[in-house]
Amino acid sequence: MAWSADPDLKIMFSRDNNSYKAKSRYNELHVGKKIIGIVDVLIEQGIICQKDGFNDRISGIGFQSRLWASDGLIEKFRKAKFNQFHIHSDEKREAVVLRDDE
Fold first, then answer.
1. Half-sphere exposure of 101 toward its Cβ, with a 13 Å CA cutoff?
2. Which residue has better confidence, 66 or 2?
3. pLDDT given at position 74
4. Reported pTM
5. Is residue 91 domain-resident?
6. Residue 28 — pLDDT band, cuts 50, 70, 90?
7. Residue 92 lies inside a defined structural domain of this protein
8. Most CB atoms closer than 10 Å: which of 4, 6, 88, 102?
9. Are 62 and 56 in contact (CB under 8 A)?
């Protein structure tokens, strides 16, 4: 879905098990911490790519990992018989709206 909207878009991904606790934003979407292992396999198989996040405990600055489709996966998307309008999400789904380039 993200690739269909913007091929250069990266998806933020938390590798922190605490992010998947009950009543968290991920848990509300029924995404459990097992997703971390699934993402690792997808990266290992070259299906998706990743830029590791980090947390500098001294400065308090941190960034979550970013994920995006590999060239091979993009090619499969291009050959697929569906488009972004065939993918639907729940109306209660949390939306993130970027207000500017920063």
1. 0
2. 66
3. 87
4. 0.64
5. no
6. low
7. no
8. 4
9. yes
Q: How far apart are CA 37 and CA 10, in angstroms?
A: 19
Q: Which two tokens stand for residue 23?
A: 């009543």
- Residue 76 forms part of a structural domain: yes
pLDDT one-digit tens code per residue, 33-80: 888 889 999 999 999 999 887 776 677 666 788 899 999 988 888 887
The three-class DSSP label of residue 54 is strand
Give the structural domain span for 27: 2-81
Tell me if residue 41 falls in helix, strand or coil: helix
pLDDT for 46 equals 95
Q: How many domains does the chain have?
A: 1
- Considering the domain boundaries, does residue 101 fall inside one? no
Residue with tokens 């993009």: 74
Distance (Å, rounded) from C-alpha 16 to C-alpha 19?
Answer: 6
Strand partners, 50: 67
